[in-house]
Design a protein that fits this description.
Number of strands: 4
Number of helices: 11
Shape: globular
Strand content: under 5%
Strand order of the largest sheet: 1-2
Distance between the termini: 67 Å
């Protein structure tokens, strides 16, 4: 049997508009039967996804070849062309990687449905108010996709390559939205759990909330595993684009001092524009991981520490201390496939590593100019 989701699941209602949009661009094949979404690899939507992604990769290949053979690239033709080929390769891999992650994502959704039933059994009811926010973010996402895709296609390769560029940005943006709202839903669940922990008066309640927290922490860490390959590809791609963006911008600004032309100003503006978007993307991912970890781990731990000073009976205090130790030893870090932990420390590592490689590129270019 194919994995299924219950249509009355609060989690499914929140992410439903996002996975509908992902299905339209071929990244999330599934179908609905009697109002219930079913996910399986052998279906008409799977065939649609294969055809759609194949056409997209072909168009992306044609765009890449045009960039590679174009002698009028904005800066340092040899380096820029090779980097563009690498970037487009990463983008094509991102389309395929997400498609193969669907099975794991579906299992993750199903676990959330089961967890919701357990929460409801203990009077912790999740609402679907986030659904309105998901629709709002989705509309803003479409505006962003259209504007950025038009700007990028007109700058690199011509307006004829708008469709592949638009699909690439749609795939990245919608998958980010899916991860974002999965994290927000996790944070909301943790806040509901905190409220119930704060009102706890009996030892048995603490025992129940500790078991629920363990499952919530497991869902938090598992989110990094189910979307880990795609997120790691994006982090690597974002790092490369940022380094090359700063590298290009430095020499474009150096050249504009000598020859201030309208064409150079446009090149600088476009380079700065994409550089800012990439930096926002990297900061968003690291901040997202940090906030998920704090909501599920640090905030719950803080509530328990305050509860431990209330002067209750000895058995109650022991259960609270055991809960605190459980959080300490099973802290819900958002780790991508066991390799990268998404937090603010990782952002600092990206910045320091990027500066190092940027210095190497600048020194290499300076030595080339000296030899010439």
């Amino acid at each position: 049997m194919s994995p299924t989701l219950k249509s009355d699941s609060a989690f499914y209602k929140v992410i439903k508009p996002i996975i509908y949009s992902l299905r339209l661009i071929g990244s999330f094949p599934y179908f609905e039967h009697k109002g219930t979404p079913h996910f399986k690899l052998l279906s008409c939507w799977t065939l649609y996804s294969i055809v759609f992604i194949t056409v997209e990769i072909i168009l992306l290949y044609l765009r890449t070849m045009r960039l590679f053979n174009n002698d009028k690239n904005m800066f340092d033709t040899r380096v820029r062309s090779q980097i563009n080929v690498l970037i487009n390769l990463f983008q094509a891999c991102g389309l395929i990687t997400l498609w193969f992650e669907v099975a794991g994502i579906v299992k993750y959704f199903s676990k959330w449905c089961s967890f919701q039933e357990e929460l409801t059994a203990y009077s912790i009811v999740l609402d679907t108010r986030l659904k309105k926010w998901s629709y709002g973010f989705l509309m803003g996402c479409f505006i962003y996709i259209l504007s950025v895709s038009y700007f990028e296609s007109s700058t690199y390769g011509g307006i004829v390559y708008l469709p592949p560029v638009m699909i690439i940005h749609a795939n990245i943006s919608l998958t980010l939205l899916l991860v974002l709202f999965s994290g927000i839903f996790t944070q909301c669940t943790a806040s509901y759990l905190c409220k119930h922990i704060k009102r706890s008066r009996r030892t048995q309640e603490i025992v129940v909330y500790r078991k629920l927290w363990i499952k919530l922490a497991h869902l938090t860490t598992e989110l990094g595993n189910v979307v880990g390959p795609t997120m790691m590809e994006w982090l690597l791609l974002g790092s490369i684009v940022t380094i090359i963006g700063f590298y290009s911008l430095i020499y474009l600004l150096q050249g504009i001092v000598k020859d201030n032309t309208y064409d150079q100003i446009n090149k600088i503006n476009s380079e700065a524009f994409f550089l800012i978007i990439t930096l926002i993307f990297l900061i968003f991912l690291c901040e997202f991981g940090h906030r998920c970890t704090c909501s599920v781990g640090t905030k719950v731990q803080t509530e328990l520490l305050e509860l431990s000073f209330t002067g209750r009976d000895k058995e109650f205090q022991q259960e609270v201390n055991l809960f605190i130790e459980t959080i300490h030893f099973r802290f819900p870090n958002l780790v991508l496939c066991g390799f990268v932990t998404l937090n603010r420390q990782f952002l600092v590592s990206l910045i320091s590593g990027g500066i190092t490689y940027l210095i190497v590129l600048v020194q290499f270019r300076s030595s080339q100019n000296t030899q010439q």
